[in-house]
Every structure is written in structure tokens, then in C-alpha cells.
Specification:
single chain, 439 residues, mainly alpha, two-stranded antiparallel ribbon, 18 helices, membrane, Wnt-protein binding
Length: 439
């Protein structure tokens, strides 16, 4: 070592006891009297002043304000629905009272959903509201178009009528506007909600066009104002407006009917919602803990271990969003309608299944169980209508729409297209094996 640099250093300003407090290196003896520096001391896990319970509590405090206000809004909406049901039972001649109550429930959904958008996003909620109101005008004006404008053929051709294309064009405009003209931080905040609203708009327009073409009385008998309020109530539904999950427009209309018992399933939904909230909190705590120890552990400094821990932290943050949206969907009372099999168990994965994602049997398990509602939406509205062009083009178009919904991100699009190609190869493995054997 070169000690010449110490000749000009003045130690006169330091007291002897000052040197006793300097513990820069872990100094130990090797038995020969010579000292050595332990290089691993820099990679020890940091000792936090707070205990693990305090760490968990700090995470709960951060997420609890968003949880409780959403739960309260969902329960208030459900209370209104129970009161309206009870009133209809007591009235002998309801006349148009059921329609009035249905409109009031839709108005409550719009009010509560707008309140949640303002709570989560501030002034950014105005842009999302403008999109919802514009799509509502297009969908509600479908009665003025002739149902014979469809390209005759099979049933899937109805899905590509020009009103559906117009709604899809509005969704693309929303994506492009947010991608190129909004602040990146603001767009990152509202991207999930914009994706849910776009999925609802496309599915509602497809269902509306099919019902109009087949003269379904559920849609043809609805007036302009009634359908407009139904769409707005569906889009602003407080149980799914922020994080989802997506469910179809006809399922919302069925859940919005004032029939059946008022409070018979309340206890079951409360317990299921509490269990989902607990799992969501456990996922976000684990995700945050992994993020906090990535730079503090020596073993996590290895490249592949670090990459795995970072990816698992991201996945568990997704599980938090999935179980949080599932809890809100159960709290508002829609889970029994959109997922009837959920009545068979207190713990049912309605949005995501972490076990099948972390320990998959195939790549298809990851694709399906990552987000059940989005998988169903892509299958119904993208994959099946485009399957006439072939298996591979349908898969590529499905993942192209999926990447577009998530935003214009090259890395994400590359990952999604890779998953699509790998899934196609896995699906056609026996056929590829036969071709390889022949040649």
C-alpha cells in the first residue's frame, strides 16, 4: 500500500477517543497477529430500527385509506339496493317503480364511481369521465341505426359493425392521447382504470350490436336515457372502476335487477371480502419487503437471483391489485352473479391465482390464471372473432390488443408477443414433433 498520502494529513485536530468510534471495517485476526478486512460486511442485511411488525403496520397504514373508502362506497351502494328491494316487496302495485329504482341505482353508481376517481386521481378524473360520457352517447344512439347494416354471415360478423368500430376508435384515441399528450406520471396513475373502461366499452358495444341485430327485447325495449344511464352505471360501478375486475354488460344488468332476497348473501360476501382484503395486504407486504432487501443482501447481488426476486416482487404487487379488486367485487355483491361457482367456497380466486402462476404446469396456466377476467375478455372479443384467419394470426392479434391495452411499451409488447409465440408452440407441440419426425 502507498502510505505517502498520510504524511500531509494533520491528526492534531482529533482527540484519541475519536478514533475509537470509527468502525469502517470489520477487522479481525487470522491467528498470526496480522489483521484482515472482512469484505462481506458491506453485504449484510441492514438492521432496521423498526421491527417487522412495525414494517407491516406502516404498509397497512399506507394502503388502508384507499381500501376503507372503496369498501364504504360499495356497502352504501349495496344498502341502497337492499332498501329498494325491500320497498318493492311492500308495494302491491309497483307500476314503474322498479324502473325508477333501477335508474336511481345507476345514478348512485355514477356518483360513487366519480367520487372514487376523484379520490384516487384528483383532477385527472375529468378525462376519464369525458370518455365514458362520449361512449355512452354512441351506444345509446344505436337504436337509430338499422339492424340490417351488419355484414351478413355468421354471428361473429355482427361484432364488427360500424358502431363497434366507432367505439373501438374512441378507445384507441384515449390510449394515444394519454400516451403522447399526458404527463408520463399521470398516465401511469390512470392507465389501469383507462384499460378497464376501454374493455367495458368494447364489450358493451359488441353486446349491444348483437342484441340489436337479433332483436333482443332486453336492448331493443330500452329507451335512450335508460340505456345511457345503464352504461354509465356499468362504467362507473364503484366495485370495479379503479382496479377492475372486468365483467360483461349483461351481467351488470342482471346484478342490477331488484329481485330476490335483500340481505341473504350479505354475511357470505362480507366474509369473502374480508379474506380477499387480508390476502391482498399480505401480498403487498411481501412485495414491499422483497423490494427493500434487494440492495441490502449479499446473496441478492447475484444477477439471476436479483432478477428473480425483482420479478417476484412485481408479481405479488399484481396479486395485491387482483385480490383488492376481488374484495370490492364481492363487497358490492356482484361476485355471486358474475361467478356463480364462488358460492361453493369461502376462498375463491375470481381475478388471479398466484399458485398456478408461481408453480405452473404449462405456459397456458400463466396466461389464464394471471388475470381471469381479462383472459375471458380477450377470448370473447378478440380471439374468437379473428380465429377465422388462422390459429397463429388470432393469437398474435390477441396479444397485440393486450399490449395495446396496457400502453405503448416496447418491452411489455415484446414480452407479450413472446408469451403468445411460446404458447402457440406449446399448443402445437405434437404436430411440430410429427413434422420433425417426418423430415
Amino acid at each position: 500500500m502507498n502510505f505517502d498520502v498520510l504524511e500531509d494529513f494533520d491528526f492534531s485536530d482529533y482527540l484519541p477517543e475519536d478514533f475509537g468510534s470509527i468502525k469502517k471495517f470489520d477487522y479481525y485476526s487470522n491467528g498470526n497477529g496480522a489483521g484482515n478486512v472482512d469484505p462481506y460486511v458491506f453485504y449484510d442485511v441492514q438492521q432496521y430500527d423498526e421491527s417487522f411488525s412495525a414494517f407491516c403496520w406502516s404498509i397497512i397504514i399506507q394502503v388502508w385509506p384507499n381500501i376503507w373508502i372503496t369498501l364504504v362506497v360499495c356497502f352504501v351502494w349495496r344498502t341502497f339496493k337492499g332498501i329498494f328491494r325491500y320497498t318493492l316487496k311492500r308495494v302491491s302495485t309497483p307500476n314503474h317503480l322498479s324502473v325508477i329504482f333501477e335508474v336511481l341505482l345507476n345514478c348512485a353508481s355514477v356518483a360513487f364511481g366519480t367520487l372514487l376517481l376523484w379520490h384516487f386521481f384528483g383532477d385527472l378524473y375529468l378525462r376519464l369521465c369525458a370518455f365514458v360520457f362520449t361512449v355512452g352517447l354512441i351506444l345509446s344512439s344505436l337504436n337509430f341505426f338499422s339492424p340490417n347494416n351488419s355484414t351478413s354471415g355468421d354471428g361473429n360478423s355482427v361484432a364488427w359493425r360500424y358502431p363497434v368500430v366507432l367505439v373501438t376508435f374512441c378507445c384507441l384515441l384515449l390510449q394515444f392521447y394519454c400516451e403522447f399528450f399526458m404527463d408520463p406520471r399521470d398516465w401511469h396513475m390512470v392507465r389501469g382504470t383507462a384499460m378497464i373502461l376501454a374493455m367495458k366499452a368494447v364489450s358493451a358495444s359488441t353486446l349491444r350490436a348483437q342484441g340489436q341485430a337479433s332483436n333482443d327485447p332486453t336492448f331493443t325495449s330500452m329507451s335512450f336515457l335508460r340505456h345511457y344511464m345503464s352504461w354509465c352505471g356499468y362504467a362507473f360501478s364503484p366495485g370495479s372502476v379503479i382496479f377492475g375486475p372486468w365483467f360483461s354488460f349483461d351481467q351488470y344488468l342482471q346484478a342490477n335487477k331488484l329481485t330476490g332476497p335483500s340481505f341473504s348473501s350479505l354475511f357470505r360476501d362480507l366474509l369473502q371480502s374480508a379474506v380477499s382484503c387480508f390476502i391482498a395486504c399480505a401480498c403487498i407486504i411481501y412485495s414491499t419487503y422483497l423490494s427493500s432487501i434487494i440492495q441490502a443482501s449479499y446473496f441478492l447481488s447475484f444477477r439471476w437471483i436479483n432478477a428473480y426476486v425483482q420479478s417476484q416482487s412485481f408479481r405479488f404487487s399484481h396479486y395485491f391489485v387482483g385480490f383488492f379488486s376481488q374484495a370490492m367485487h364481492q363487497a358490492i355483491g356482484f361476485a355471486a352473479v358474475t361467478n356463480p361457482k364462488s358460492r361453493q367456497s369461502w376462498i375463491t380466486a375470481l381475478v388471479t391465482n398466484p399458485i398456478s402462476v408461481e408453480l405452473p404446469r404449462s405456459l397456458v396456466d400463466v396466461v389464464v390464471h394471471w388475470n381471469f377476467p381479462m383472459h375471458i375478455w380477450l377470448k370473447l372479443h378478440i380471439y374468437k372473432p379473428t380465429r377465422r384467419f388462422g390459429q397463429l394470426p388470432a393469437i398474435l392479434l390477441t396479444y397485440a390488443f393486450s399490449s395495446l391495452l396496457h400502453g405503448l411499451n416496447f418491452q411489455l409488447a415484446a414480452v407479450l408477443f413472446s408469451i403468445g409465440i411460446y404458447a402457440y408452440i406449446e399448443f402445437g407441440k405434437p404436430r411440430f414433433s410429427l413434422i420433425w419426425f417426418i423430415f
